[in-house]
Amino acid sequence: MSYLVPLALVALAIFLVLKVIIIVPQGREFTVERFGRYTRTLRPGISILTPFFETIGRRVNMMEQVLDVPQQEVITKDNVSVKVDAIVFIQVMDASQAAYRVDNLMYAITQLSQTNLRTVVGSMELDEVLSQRDQINSRLLSTIDHATGPWGVKVTRIEIKDLTPPPDITNAMARQMKAEREKRAVITEAEGEKQSAIARAEGQKQAAILEAEGRKEAAFRTAEARERSAEAEAKATAFVSEAISKGDVNAINYFIAQKYVEAFGELAKSPNAKTVIVPADFAGLTGTVAGVAELVKTLGGGDGPRTVVPPTPRRGV
């Protein structure tokens, strides 16, 4: 029986070591109570307690945690019942306040989130609830963070996880969305046709401008050609008139030959004439041309005016 005493002493020593030496893991904080009263908070690492006087009160998780807010039905401002749920991200900043200021911290935050979610969603119409989730999250975050501040908890984020309107509202929204998309498609198509018509009109306008510019340039060139032709004709007439004034018969023959050739050309170009009757002998025409050549020599600086007797015309058909 003598060996029982040492064994009892060893067991007592192990028990005291386990109760006195405390190892706090990273991300946790332990509160210390002396006769049931909070005295201090143990940080991560090794700590020593006073045996038989101090005990560990609460083990608090200091890491960021996620709470799931259960789904609930909320009536919006325009009397539409929607199912909504959310998730809340929290982090304990003060272990003593989280341990002793509220009982069952997670349940309290969950209930607080549900009630505020009903309040915020119930103050908005359905269209606002569906389109302004960021605004709902911001309002919930501000309200819940303010309420959990005395508990030593920081609410870092709140997100609406799901919003489910009634089936009839969902069907109506689907039809509305389809109608809106068809409307946008018609508007886009009409805008495209408008732009196409504008482009075609602009092209026709440019084509008309270019065509008018072309006609203007052609008319200018034609007028310039007529002007030069008239100048040449005037110079020729002036030379011939000068020759006639000097008594040169060849000048008269020049005019006669010119009119003769023009008249004969018009007669030959007639579309209705199948038979051409030559009204004069070609020998007479030859003589006239010879007279014209003599006139050219005279105008070109010959020996002086000469009198050319035209050959005797012969009749023929």
Structure commentary:
The chain is of the alpha+beta class and 317 residues long. It has 8 helices and 8 strands, in the order H-E-E-E-E-E-E-E-H-H-H-H-E-H-H-H. The protein has a 3-stranded antiparallel sheet. A 3-stranded antiparallel sheet has the order 6-7-8. A two-stranded antiparallel ribbon has the order 1-4. It is rod-shaped and about 180 Å long.
Spell the H/E element sequence: HEEEEEEEHHHHEHHH
Number of helices: 8
Strand content: 15-25%
Helicity level, as a percent range? 55-70%
Write down the overall geometry: rod-shaped
The secondary structure category is alpha+beta
Fill in the keyword field for this structure.
disordered C terminus; alpha+beta; three-stranded antiparallel sheet; single chain; 317 residues
